[in-house]
Design goal:
alpha+beta
Length: about 120
């Protein structure tokens, strides 16, 4: 196999593996007056949406404004008369989170609180 063919082969493998998850952070708004036929939108915290199998190059090279509009359009499709979502931010997730095993969080937190840190 020539060097050029080998490089093209490796590039194709890398390209295939560059699919990532996109986590979209959104503000959740709740229409408190919807049941009475009105509108009174109130923020109710944030929520995260995830899209699987996105080509990382699409995210790295796309204009930020275009990405923001695209993500907001996707969030609009998830919205209703009672709840709506407003784009805040996004992040790429290339692999699954690593679980911190064998740790007692409450014990560690209490230890830090008792030390006055």
């Amino acid at each position: 196999m020539s060097h050029v063919k080998f490089i093209l082969y490796i590039s194709s493998i890398i390209k295939e593996n560059m699919k990532v998850k996109v986590n979209i952070e959104a503000q959740l708004w709740y229409n408190a007056a919807w049941y009475e036929g009105g509108e009174a939108w109130k923020p109710k915290g944030s929520t995260t949406f995830q899209i699987d199998g996105v080509d990382s190059d699409d995210l790295f090279y796309a204009d930020k404004e275009v990405l923001t509009k695209t993500f907001q359009e996707l969030l609009d499709k998830q919205s209703s008369n009672v709840e709506r979502y407003e784009y805040l931010d996004h992040s790429l997730q290339a692999d699954e989170p690593t679980v911190i095993a064998g740790v007692d969080f409450e014990e560690s937190l209490n230890k830090m609180l008792n030390l006055g840190l």
